[in-house]
């Protein structure tokens, strides 16, 4: 059934097509149609020729108006979605010149340079825009304590997405504790109606000033213009600034070297409430449990062939043997997530919390992740929460290539790349060589003749068994084991950020081709 909103969008689409047909050379008609299509997931690729035509006015005639920044941004994003990274970098360079007032373009340029393997240029670009933003913030009046005010952003992303909130705030706090900025006060603007998990915000309120009142937020924004701090970018101990997806491993390694504790800790009354709710569901008070989260397409409607997140997903069916390994060891498995997820079959000592209406709440989400023995599953939002509470992570089906859980207490197995031409698995150094490092765009892999391969059920089960053995202290690594880990992590780490995660023994045994030099 077509909704009223969809009918209205279809009507607008037809109107814009008719307007364009009357004058295909019109700047305004191409802008309106291009921007409209860019905002619709299943039609956004159709926007490319219209945006290109509109940008010809910018490139050839120096035309600039209120739509120029949006047109440039959408056009560059489509280039990225098509796997055209050089072209995207060129668009962002043009955008920086055409719209110097839009600082996001400098960050996006840095991201594009990083994709191309130009790491030093990317770091320098990030640092330049951060320095410019810091200078603007320091031009503001200081607060009553004589400090420079900074707002953590993008605030809407932090507030609306569970993992973004945890991951961004956790690692911002860690970087600031490792390298204090004593004359700044950082504030999280958190309007009550935008907060995805109020319980998590409450935990972070012990470490950050959080403002939720709408009038107070408006007053702060008026008093301190241009005070935003982008939490996507972290300066690591060696002085480089990198996107947090790579930087967090370096930050966590330094954090652990200094012997620092997790930023967050479950409160005793929270533990008592959570245990009571589990007891009502049949979980004994002294029973241990592990949380499972396997990302699927439903939450963000990622069915298009070019969706960046398609390869981050997994099949819950592949995790059944791993679940059984945990329950056979005496534990429980609590599958977390949302109601769009494929239901689990009935299993002993397993709770499908994702599809449970009576158990779910914001505080229970936090208790389960923060109180579990470990968290396992695909790279997704909940894996941003676990490190904040110091809970070990077993990352499976990890993607994009080059990302891994950050702690020395964590384990991981990642997806593989296989050549469609000869059926061979690509060695790990080539897998993370530019521009494949952090690349998620399906069209890039299609154009390169590469297939993204999920972990097998056996690989996942064996990783879980090893994780349990390590947590119990039942594994002693031989010098050969340790050397193989060091060798692999070096190959996996072209940015040299000091990866400390452990890769599953069974996974490495199963794929000796990952060690081959191309």
Intertermini distance: 52 Å
Shape: globular
Q: Assess the beta-strand content as a share of residues.
A: 5-15%
How many domains, in number, for the residues? 3
- The CATH class of the largest domain is identified as Alpha Beta
Question: How many strands, what sense, and barrel or not for the largest sheet?
Answer: 7 strands, parallel
In the CATH hierarchy, what is the superfamily of the largest domain? Glycogen Phosphorylase B
Number of helices: 21
Please give the share of residues in helix: 40-55%
CATH T-level fold name of the largest domain:
Rossmann fold
By secondary-structure content and strand pairing, the structural class works out as alpha/beta
Low-pLDDT windows of residues: none
How many strand elements? 15
**Mean residue pLDDT:** 95
Spatial strand order of the main sheet: 9-8-7-10-11-12-15
CATH architecture of the largest domain: 3-Layer(aba) Sandwich
Indicate the radius of gyration in whole angstroms.
24 Å
Summarize the entry for a quick read.
By secondary structure, this protein is of the alpha/beta class.
Secondary structure layout:
Blueprint: H1 4-22, H2 27-38, H3 48-61, H4 68-81, H5 85-98, H6 103-115, H7 119-138, E1 148-153, H8 155-160, H9 162-178, E2 184-189, H10 198-204, E3 209-211, H11 214-223, E4 228-230, E5 233-235, E6 241-243, H12 244-257, H13 268-280, E7 289-293, H14 320-328, E8 332-335, E9 350-351, H15 362-371, E10 375-377, H16 382-385, E11 393-398, E12 411-414, E13 416-419, H17 428-431, H18 442-447, E14 450-453, H19 457-471, H20 479-492, E15 502-503, H21 505-510
């Amino acid at each position: 059934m077509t909704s009223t909103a969809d009918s209205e969008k279809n009507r607008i689409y037809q109107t814009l097509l008719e307007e364009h047909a009357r004058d295909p050379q019109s700047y305004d008609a191409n802008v309106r149609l291009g921007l409209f299509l860019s905002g619709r997931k299943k039609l956004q690729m159709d926007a490319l020729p219209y945006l290109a035509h509109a940008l010809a006015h910018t490139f050839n005639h120096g035309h600039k108006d209120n739509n120029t920044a949006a047109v440039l941004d959408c056009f560059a994003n489509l280039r990225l979605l098509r796997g055209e990274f050089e072209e995207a970098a060129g668009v962002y360079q043009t955008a920086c010149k055409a719209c110097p007032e839009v600082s996001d373009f400098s960050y996006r340029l840095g991201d594009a340079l990083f994709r191309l393997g130009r790491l030093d240029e990317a770091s320098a670009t990030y640092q330049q825009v951060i320095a410019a933003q810091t200078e603007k913030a320091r031009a503001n009046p200081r607060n009553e304590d004589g400090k420079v005010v900074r707002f953590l952003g993008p605030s809407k992303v932090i507030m609306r997405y569970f993992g973004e909130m945890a991951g961004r705030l956790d690692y911002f706090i860690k970087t600031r504790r490792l390298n204090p900025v004593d004359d700044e006060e950082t504030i999280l603007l958190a309007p009550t109606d935008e907060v995805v998990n109020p319980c998590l915000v409450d935990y972070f309120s012990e470490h950050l000033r959080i403002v939720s009142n709408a009038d107070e937020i408006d007053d702060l924004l008026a008093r301190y213009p241009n005070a935003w701090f982008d939490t996507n970018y972290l300066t690591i101990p060696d002085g480089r600034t990198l996107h947090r997806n790579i930087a967090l491993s370096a930050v966590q390694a330094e954090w652990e070297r200094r012997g620092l504790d997790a930023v967050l800790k479950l409160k005793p009354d929270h533990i008592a409430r959570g245990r009571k709710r589990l007891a009502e569901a049949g979980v004994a008070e002294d029973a241990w449990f592990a949380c499972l989260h396997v990302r699927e397409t439903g939450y963000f409607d990622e069915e298009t062939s070019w969706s960046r997140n398609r390869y981050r997903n997994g099949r819950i069916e592949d995790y059944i043997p791993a679940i059984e390994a945990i329950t056979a060891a005496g534990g429980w498995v609590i599958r977390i997530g949302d109601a769009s997820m494929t239901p689990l079959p009935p299993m002993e000592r397993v709770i499908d919390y994702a599809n449970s209406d009576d158990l779910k709440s914001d505080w229970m989400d936090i208790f389960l992740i923060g109180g579990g023995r470990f968290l396992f599953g695909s790279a997704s939002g909940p894996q941003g929460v676990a490190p904040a509470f110091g809970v070990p992570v077993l990352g499976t089906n990890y993607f994009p290539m080059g990302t891994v859980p950050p702690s020395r207490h964590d384990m991981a197995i990642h997806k593989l790349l296989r050549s469609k031409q000869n059926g061979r698995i690509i060695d790990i150094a080539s897998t993370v060589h530019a521009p494949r490092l952090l690349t998620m765009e399906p069209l890039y892999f299609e154009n390169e003749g590469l297939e993204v391969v999920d972990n097998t059920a056996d690989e996942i089960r064996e990783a879980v068994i090893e994780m349990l053995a390590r947590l119990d202290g039942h594994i002693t690594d031989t010098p050969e084991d340790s050397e193989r880990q060091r060798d692999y992590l070096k190959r996996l780490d072209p940015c040299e950020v000091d990866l400390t995660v452990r890769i599953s023994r069974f996974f490495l045994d199963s794929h000796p081709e990952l060690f081959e030099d191309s």
